[in-house]
Amino acid sequence: MNEPTTYSIPDPLPVDVTALLRAVHDALDIPDADTIEDDRIRARLLDRRVSDARIVLASVLKYEVLGEVGVADAARQLRGWTAERPVTYTPWADRRDGRPGTDDAPEGSAP
Helices marked H in the chain — which ranges? Predict the structure, then answer.
């Protein structure tokens, strides 16, 4: 006979791991650019932030098991590097209604 399927709720991630994942997300989640020139600036910034995130993640994977680099320290480092490299270009905005990312909507449609 079929027994009911049971699901268990997984344990939450450790706080320092969540902090590192949030730092990686925040470093890479940058707005689209408004112009072609701004897009070049955005691409350089994103390349740099990807490199920073890769360095931090590689350090954790390589050295955290040895106790030389803590996950929380890595998150702080990445947040510091991200703060040193802010968005300096003009983010894209749909000028029809001022909200970013809405140019897919047909003209005259409700948001």
Answer: 15-28, 36-63, 71-84
